[in-house]
Design goal:
The protein has helices at residues 32-42, 63-72, 86-95, 104-108, 111-120, 153-162, 184-193, 207-215, 226-229, 235-244, and strands at 5-13, 16-21, 24-30, 47-51, 77-80, 99-102, 125-134, 137-142, 147-152, 167-172, 198-201, 221-224. The protein is α/β, with parallel strands linked by helices. It has a single domain (5-244), classed as Aldolase class I (TIM Barrel). It has an eight-stranded parallel barrel with strand order 1-4-5-6-7-10-11-12, surrounded by six helices. β8 and β9 (147-152) form a beta hairpin. α1 runs parallel beside α2. The longest helix has 11 residues, at 32-42.
Length: 251
């Protein structure tokens, strides 16, 4: 059985790690390079760095920061935000990123998923899906959660997998930053119905929430931010707790 992964997420704004609630009410959480190094030392399996305003501000992702992170880390890390084409991806991978994450560009140009998978390999193409519940069901949002689309989350997720993505990073905007637990139903539906791993994001507040997302949500990995950034759940303590509850993790 594959080990479940614990992935801290570092949202970066103006060179600082930040965290909000429901994608708003942002507060600073520290230097992204230093924080990343601490998480690697604590036993994080991977990291995700997101330039959270790059797509809405129509600018490229932060290659210089990626170089600094790559020099510091000894674990894989994913970079996202503002990626528009294969050249952007090549620049980030050359800077040291292991994977890239696309959301807005994938929705606007779904063929990009296959282009990137063919050129760089599916294993480094993560498609982020920001989802929010509405009267029509779970809807995909783009531009850092600012713009609703007409895409249904489960349908889009299936298309993403078919087009060659290696993983899906599923963030529930309704749960994001609330610390009330992950969105278990939609996570389980995607994890059980798709041939690629699903990373669950949004809502972590307690160690039991991680148990729920792995056992009930069937997620392959769990991503969180504020509970790690502000020292509420130390990663070594979390991993020991998961192990005690029969969840396979790397210690």
């Amino acid at each position: 059985m594959l080990a479940k992964r614990i992935i801290p997420c570092l949202d970066v704004l103006n060179g600082q790690t930040v965290k909000g609630v429901n994608f708003i009410n942002i507060r600073e959480a520290g230097d992204p390079v230093e924080l990343g190094a601490v998480y690697a030392q604590q036993g994080a399996d991977e990291l995700v760095y997101l330039d959270i305003t790059a797509s809405v501000e129509k600018r490229g992702t932060f290659a210089e920061l990626v170089k600094k992170v790559a020099r510091t880390l000894n674990i894989p890390f994913t970079v996202g935000g503002g990626i528009r084409n294969a050249e952007d991806v090549a620049r980030l991978l050359d800077a040291g990123a292991d994977k890239i994450s696309i959301n807005t560009a994938a929705v606007n140009n779904p063929e990009l998923i296959g282009i990137l998978a063919n050129r760089f390999g599916s294993q480094c193409v993560v498609v982020a899906i920001d989802t929010k519940f509405s009267e029509k069901g779970d809807i995909v949002y783009i531009h850092g959660g600012r713009t609703p689309t007409k895409r249904i989350t489960r349908v889009w997720a299936r298309e993403v997998a078919e087009r060659g993505a290696g993983e899906i990073l599923l963030t529930s905007m309704d749960h994001d930053g609330t610390k009330n637990g992950f969105a278990l139903d939609i996570t389980r539906e995607l994890a059980e119905g798709l041939p690629i791993p699903v990373i669950a994001s949004g809502g972590a507040g307690t160690k039991d929430h991680f148990i729920d997302v792995f056992k009930k949500g069937k997620a392959d990995a769990a991503l969180a931010a504020s509970v790690f950034h502000f020292g509420e759940i130390p990663i070594p303590e979390l991993k020991q707790y998961l192990k005690q509850n029969d969840i396979e993790v790397r210690l």
